Amino acid sequence: MGRKWNNIKEKKASKDANTSRIYAKFGKEIYVAAKQGEPDPESNQSLRFVLERAKTYNVPRHIIDRAIEKAKGGSEENYDELRYEGFGPSGTMIIVDALTNNVNRTASEVRAAFGKNGGNMGVSGSVAYMFDQTAVIGVEGKTSDEVLELLMEADLDVRDIMEEDDAVIVYAEPDQFHAVQEAFKAAGVSEFTVAELTMLAKSDVTLPDDAVAQFEKLIDVLEDLDDVQQVYHNVDLGE
Protein backbone atom coordinates (compact mmCIF):
# COMPACT_ATOMS: atom_id res chain seq x y z
CA MET A 1 0.00 0.00 0.00
CA GLY A 2 1.08 3.59 -0.29
CA ARG A 3 1.20 4.24 -3.99
CA LYS A 4 1.98 7.82 -4.94
CA TRP A 5 -1.65 8.82 -5.37
CA ASN A 6 -0.94 12.53 -5.80
CA ASN A 7 1.69 11.81 -8.42
CA ILE A 8 -0.62 9.43 -10.28
CA LYS A 9 -3.33 12.09 -10.35
CA GLU A 10 -0.90 14.75 -11.56
CA LYS A 11 0.45 12.43 -14.26
CA LYS A 12 -3.05 11.76 -15.57
CA ALA A 13 -4.00 15.43 -15.45
CA SER A 14 -0.80 16.44 -17.26
CA LYS A 15 -1.28 13.76 -19.90
CA ASP A 16 -4.83 14.86 -20.62
CA ALA A 17 -4.26 18.61 -20.27
CA ASN A 18 -4.11 19.40 -23.98
CA THR A 19 -7.09 17.30 -25.05
CA SER A 20 -9.35 17.92 -22.04
CA ARG A 21 -10.10 14.21 -22.22
CA ILE A 22 -10.25 13.97 -18.46
CA TYR A 23 -12.94 16.67 -18.38
CA ALA A 24 -15.02 14.79 -20.93
CA LYS A 25 -14.80 11.65 -18.83
CA PHE A 26 -15.92 13.54 -15.74
CA GLY A 27 -18.73 15.19 -17.68
CA LYS A 28 -20.07 11.78 -18.64
CA GLU A 29 -19.72 10.42 -15.10
CA ILE A 30 -21.44 13.45 -13.57
CA TYR A 31 -24.29 13.18 -16.08
CA VAL A 32 -24.82 9.49 -15.31
CA ALA A 33 -24.77 10.06 -11.54
CA ALA A 34 -27.17 13.01 -11.79
CA LYS A 35 -29.53 11.10 -14.08
CA GLN A 36 -29.67 8.02 -11.85
CA GLY A 37 -30.94 10.04 -8.89
CA GLU A 38 -31.79 13.59 -7.97
CA PRO A 39 -29.49 16.10 -9.73
CA ASP A 40 -28.61 17.52 -6.31
CA PRO A 41 -25.43 16.38 -4.49
CA GLU A 42 -27.08 16.99 -1.12
CA SER A 43 -29.54 14.16 -1.75
CA ASN A 44 -27.59 12.13 -4.31
CA GLN A 45 -24.58 10.47 -2.70
CA SER A 46 -23.22 9.13 -5.99
CA LEU A 47 -23.27 12.60 -7.51
CA ARG A 48 -21.65 14.10 -4.42
CA PHE A 49 -18.83 11.57 -4.65
CA VAL A 50 -18.17 12.32 -8.33
CA LEU A 51 -18.16 16.06 -7.67
CA GLU A 52 -15.66 15.62 -4.83
CA ARG A 53 -13.38 13.71 -7.23
CA ALA A 54 -13.86 16.31 -9.95
CA LYS A 55 -12.80 19.04 -7.55
CA THR A 56 -9.44 17.35 -6.93
CA TYR A 57 -8.83 17.34 -10.70
CA ASN A 58 -9.82 21.01 -11.06
CA VAL A 59 -12.63 20.19 -13.47
CA PRO A 60 -14.06 23.54 -14.66
CA ARG A 61 -17.39 24.57 -13.21
CA HIS A 62 -18.99 24.91 -16.64
CA ILE A 63 -18.26 21.23 -17.37
CA ILE A 64 -20.00 20.23 -14.14
CA ASP A 65 -22.96 22.54 -14.65
CA ARG A 66 -23.46 21.45 -18.26
CA ALA A 67 -23.55 17.76 -17.28
CA ILE A 68 -26.04 18.37 -14.46
CA GLU A 69 -28.25 20.56 -16.64
CA LYS A 70 -28.22 17.86 -19.31
CA ALA A 71 -29.50 15.38 -16.73
CA LYS A 72 -32.13 17.84 -15.50
CA GLY A 73 -33.28 18.40 -19.07
CA GLY A 74 -34.37 14.80 -19.37
CA SER A 75 -31.82 13.72 -21.95
CA GLU A 76 -32.56 10.24 -23.27
CA GLU A 77 -28.86 9.41 -23.63
CA ASN A 78 -28.14 6.30 -21.57
CA TYR A 79 -24.88 4.67 -20.57
CA ASP A 80 -24.09 1.18 -19.34
CA GLU A 81 -21.52 0.71 -16.60
CA LEU A 82 -19.14 -2.07 -17.59
CA ARG A 83 -16.12 -3.72 -16.01
CA TYR A 84 -13.50 -5.64 -17.96
CA GLU A 85 -10.75 -7.75 -16.47
CA GLY A 86 -7.57 -8.80 -18.18
CA PHE A 87 -3.89 -9.57 -18.09
CA GLY A 88 -1.01 -7.45 -19.29
CA PRO A 89 2.63 -8.29 -20.05
CA SER A 90 4.24 -10.78 -17.62
CA GLY A 91 0.85 -11.82 -16.24
CA THR A 92 0.06 -8.42 -14.72
CA MET A 93 -3.54 -7.85 -13.66
CA ILE A 94 -5.73 -5.02 -14.97
CA ILE A 95 -9.29 -3.86 -14.33
CA VAL A 96 -11.01 -1.47 -16.76
CA ASP A 97 -14.19 0.41 -15.84
CA ALA A 98 -16.21 1.99 -18.64
CA LEU A 99 -19.34 4.00 -19.32
CA THR A 100 -20.71 3.39 -22.79
CA ASN A 101 -23.72 3.85 -25.02
CA ASN A 102 -22.45 1.12 -27.33
CA VAL A 103 -21.43 -2.07 -25.53
CA ASN A 104 -20.17 -3.85 -28.65
CA ARG A 105 -17.92 -0.94 -29.61
CA THR A 106 -16.41 -0.68 -26.16
CA ALA A 107 -15.81 -4.41 -25.79
CA SER A 108 -14.12 -4.48 -29.19
CA GLU A 109 -11.88 -1.49 -28.41
CA VAL A 110 -10.84 -2.81 -25.00
CA ARG A 111 -10.13 -6.28 -26.39
CA ALA A 112 -8.05 -4.77 -29.20
CA ALA A 113 -6.09 -2.62 -26.74
CA PHE A 114 -5.14 -5.70 -24.74
CA GLY A 115 -4.39 -7.85 -27.78
CA LYS A 116 -2.16 -5.33 -29.54
CA ASN A 117 -0.10 -4.51 -26.44
CA GLY A 118 0.95 -7.84 -25.00
CA GLY A 119 -2.17 -8.62 -23.01
CA ASN A 120 -5.41 -10.52 -23.20
CA MET A 121 -8.94 -10.21 -21.86
CA GLY A 122 -10.01 -12.41 -18.98
CA VAL A 123 -13.41 -13.59 -17.82
CA SER A 124 -15.38 -11.84 -15.10
CA GLY A 125 -13.78 -12.55 -11.74
CA SER A 126 -10.43 -13.62 -13.14
CA VAL A 127 -8.68 -10.52 -11.78
CA ALA A 128 -11.00 -8.66 -9.42
CA TYR A 129 -10.45 -11.09 -6.55
CA MET A 130 -6.91 -9.72 -6.24
CA PHE A 131 -8.15 -6.17 -5.62
CA ASP A 132 -9.98 -4.46 -2.76
CA GLN A 133 -12.26 -1.48 -3.29
CA THR A 134 -10.75 1.26 -1.15
CA ALA A 135 -11.49 4.88 -0.28
CA VAL A 136 -8.37 7.03 -0.72
CA ILE A 137 -8.47 10.55 0.72
CA GLY A 138 -5.53 12.92 0.86
CA VAL A 139 -4.96 16.24 2.62
CA GLU A 140 -2.15 18.74 3.05
CA GLY A 141 -1.25 20.80 6.09
CA LYS A 142 -1.62 17.93 8.55
CA THR A 143 0.75 15.36 10.01
CA SER A 144 -0.12 11.68 10.13
CA ASP A 145 -0.41 11.95 13.92
CA GLU A 146 -2.87 14.84 13.62
CA VAL A 147 -4.91 12.90 11.08
CA LEU A 148 -4.95 9.82 13.30
CA GLU A 149 -6.13 11.93 16.23
CA LEU A 150 -8.98 13.61 14.35
CA LEU A 151 -10.14 10.28 12.92
CA MET A 152 -10.08 8.72 16.39
CA GLU A 153 -12.15 11.62 17.70
CA ALA A 154 -14.67 10.86 14.94
CA ASP A 155 -14.61 7.19 16.01
CA LEU A 156 -13.25 6.09 12.62
CA ASP A 157 -10.96 3.08 12.40
CA VAL A 158 -9.43 3.22 8.91
CA ARG A 159 -7.17 0.79 7.09
CA ASP A 160 -4.02 2.90 6.99
CA ILE A 161 -2.60 6.43 7.18
CA MET A 162 0.54 7.28 5.22
CA GLU A 163 2.61 10.37 4.53
CA GLU A 164 3.40 11.08 0.88
CA ASP A 165 5.49 14.09 -0.03
CA ASP A 166 3.55 17.03 1.44
CA ALA A 167 0.29 15.13 1.90
CA VAL A 168 -1.21 12.60 4.26
CA ILE A 169 -3.13 9.79 2.56
CA VAL A 170 -5.91 7.91 4.34
CA TYR A 171 -6.94 4.44 3.15
CA ALA A 172 -10.40 3.49 4.37
CA GLU A 173 -13.33 1.18 3.75
CA PRO A 174 -15.51 2.32 0.82
CA ASP A 175 -18.47 3.08 3.08
CA GLN A 176 -16.24 5.35 5.18
CA PHE A 177 -15.53 7.74 2.31
CA HIS A 178 -17.94 10.50 3.30
CA ALA A 179 -17.41 10.00 7.04
CA VAL A 180 -13.66 10.53 6.66
CA GLN A 181 -14.24 13.65 4.59
CA GLU A 182 -16.69 15.00 7.15
CA ALA A 183 -14.15 14.38 9.93
CA PHE A 184 -11.60 16.43 8.00
CA LYS A 185 -14.11 19.19 7.29
CA ALA A 186 -15.02 19.34 10.98
CA ALA A 187 -11.31 19.91 11.65
CA GLY A 188 -11.22 22.83 9.22
CA VAL A 189 -10.02 21.04 6.08
CA SER A 190 -11.88 22.12 2.95
CA GLU A 191 -9.53 20.98 0.16
CA PHE A 192 -8.51 17.42 -0.67
CA THR A 193 -5.54 16.43 -2.82
CA VAL A 194 -7.11 13.03 -3.48
CA ALA A 195 -10.71 11.84 -3.12
CA GLU A 196 -11.11 8.48 -4.84
CA LEU A 197 -12.89 5.17 -4.59
CA THR A 198 -10.35 2.91 -6.21
CA MET A 199 -9.58 -0.75 -6.76
CA LEU A 200 -6.35 -1.32 -4.81
CA ALA A 201 -4.28 -4.41 -5.57
CA LYS A 202 -3.79 -6.69 -2.57
CA SER A 203 -0.13 -6.93 -3.58
CA ASP A 204 1.90 -5.06 -6.18
CA VAL A 205 4.37 -6.64 -8.58
CA THR A 206 7.52 -5.16 -10.10
CA LEU A 207 8.00 -5.71 -13.82
CA PRO A 208 11.32 -6.63 -15.42
CA ASP A 209 12.83 -3.63 -17.16
CA ASP A 210 12.13 -5.00 -20.64
CA ALA A 211 8.37 -5.24 -19.92
CA VAL A 212 7.78 -1.79 -18.43
CA ALA A 213 7.47 0.17 -21.69
CA GLN A 214 4.97 -2.28 -23.18
CA PHE A 215 2.90 -2.31 -19.99
CA GLU A 216 2.81 1.50 -19.80
CA LYS A 217 1.75 1.68 -23.45
CA LEU A 218 -1.11 -0.75 -22.76
CA ILE A 219 -2.31 1.36 -19.83
CA ASP A 220 -2.03 4.56 -21.89
CA VAL A 221 -4.02 3.03 -24.77
CA LEU A 222 -6.75 1.83 -22.40
CA GLU A 223 -6.98 5.19 -20.63
CA ASP A 224 -7.20 7.00 -23.96
CA LEU A 225 -10.35 5.12 -25.00
CA ASP A 226 -13.32 7.48 -24.88
CA ASP A 227 -15.54 4.97 -23.08
CA VAL A 228 -13.00 4.07 -20.39
CA GLN A 229 -13.33 5.89 -17.08
CA GLN A 230 -10.79 4.16 -14.86
CA VAL A 231 -7.95 1.67 -15.23
CA TYR A 232 -6.56 -0.18 -12.21
CA HIS A 233 -3.55 -2.51 -12.10
CA ASN A 234 -1.22 -4.31 -9.73
CA VAL A 235 2.11 -2.97 -10.99
CA ASP A 236 4.47 -0.83 -8.95
CA LEU A 237 5.83 1.64 -11.50
CA GLY A 238 7.74 3.65 -8.93
CA GLU A 239 5.38 6.64 -9.31
UniProtKB/TrEMBL annotation:
SUPFAM superfamilies referenced in this protein's UniProt entry, alphabetically: YebC-like
Main subcellular localisation: cytoplasm
One annotated Gene Ontology cellular component of this protein: cytosol
Residues spanning the signal sequence: none
Cross-referenced InterPro entries: Integrase-like_N, TACO1_YebC-like_2nd/3rd_dom, TACO1_YebC_N, Transcrip_reg_TACO1-like, Transcrip_reg_TACO1-like_dom3, Transcrip_reg_TACO1_YeeN, YebC-like
Listed Gene3D superfamilies: 1.10.10.200, 3.30.70.980
Top-level taxon in the UniProt lineage: Bacteria
Keywords associated with the record: Cytoplasm, DNA-binding, Transcription, Transcription regulation
GO molecular function, one term: DNA binding
Chain ranges of the TACO1/YebC-like N-terminal domain: 3-74
GO terms under biological process: regulation of DNA-templated transcription
Location of this chain's protein in the cell: Cytoplasm
Residues covered by the TACO1/YebC-like second and third domain: 79-235
Family statement: Belongs to the TACO1 family. YeeN subfamily.
HAMAP family assigned: Transcrip_reg_TACO1, Transcrip_reg_TACO1_YeeN
Protein name from the UniProt record: Probable transcriptional regulatory protein F4V44_13275
Lineage: Bacteria, Bacillati, Bacillota, Bacilli, Bacillales
